[in-house]
Write a structure and sequence with these properties.
About 45% of the residues lie in helices and about 20% in strands. By secondary structure, it is α/β, with parallel strands linked by helices. It has two domains: about 1-15 and about 25-145, no CATH class; about 150-400, von Willebrand factor, type A domain (Rossmann fold). The strands form three sheets. Strands 9-6-5-10-11-12 form a six-stranded mixed β-sheet, sandwiched between helices. Helix 1 packs antiparallel against helix 2 (about 25-75).
Amino acid sequence: MKKTHNLKQQIFNKFILFLRDSRGQISIMFALLLIPLIGFIGGALDFSQKISYENKLQATLDSVSIAVAKEIARDNKAKDADLKKIGDIIFKTNHLLPDNITASPYVILRDKETLTVSQTAILKTSFMSLVGVSKLNIEIATKVNIKRSDVELAMILDMSGSMRGSKMSDLKTATKDLVNTLIQDTTGLASVKISYIPWTRGVLINHPMNKLVLKNNNWGRYNCGGSRREATEKSAAKQPIPVSVDRWGDEEDCPQTSIVPLTDNKTKLLNAVNGWVAYGGTYSDTGLTWGWGTLSPAWNGLWSTTAKAKPYEKVKKFVVLMTDGDNNTTQADSRSRVLCKKMKAKGIKIYSIAFKAGKKAKKLLKKCASTSTMYIDASSGDALKEAFKQIADEVGAFYISG
């Protein structure tokens, strides 16, 4: 402001000297035009200040709205005073009020569908006041759609033998934390349903469904479902899936706990985690095949009414694919890549987590992730827990994006 004031004073002083110069008519005419000329030229500086402040204020209010909206997603019953405290931290950190601007306190308003953060201010002009414009009004607002949408999340989790010990303990803790975060009364969300797909070489399919979905299994001898050679969304009821067997026709490498279709029953989800045991090989295409099945409306005939997947356009669908090692075959890698590609084409957002995994597994998981930021390299148990917490928070952010 000091530089602007000095410039204004210098121009005014020159103008006074010019008025005292009485040499000719042209000088007099020019003198009469000088005041509006100074006002218009100097007005560009005033408007430049206005635009600069508006841009900075917009960025600040955007940051405030995101922080407040995330808190609403976490706790729909949060009080306005608590939301204001969160907003104040962001606002005070990012906002600087120039000397020539006076501003009203910013305001947070919310209804069932919209969060609005706004502020009004007045900029005192330096040059435009010479032509009668002493102030410029500033009004900035940012809006966020906080309308609740349904969410379906498939947890496709590696149960292979290398997950024994602390790895499995860390996975159980991280999963329970995620469930407790996403399924709680305070979120106010329309619907959050989660499915579990524990996988190794195969997935466990309980009787009597095993007769329907596993190829040539009319007598229900086999309970361990594998994967198809073709990466497709077709229901296992219409195109049964081969069983996971060894060369002698015996079942092998099947998890000890079965698939849990989509549910919002927190007790059921938490209890299922307790039964997870590490055993067997690594075939991520198997997990992806059956995980997609829990999210696909094409598979709805297999699940109970409450576990049916909603149409893609009616719900936000997510996958968490976690493994700690390389697939046992290159075919599993190639089929996994195709499955991930086709799921993403349907609008399913995929998080992939490399839990103390090698280069080959990381390469596959990076390919599967929907974005580079949705691939997470978890090099420790604490990192895995933090990854699941991040996912819970970010999935919450999708609720508020409408």
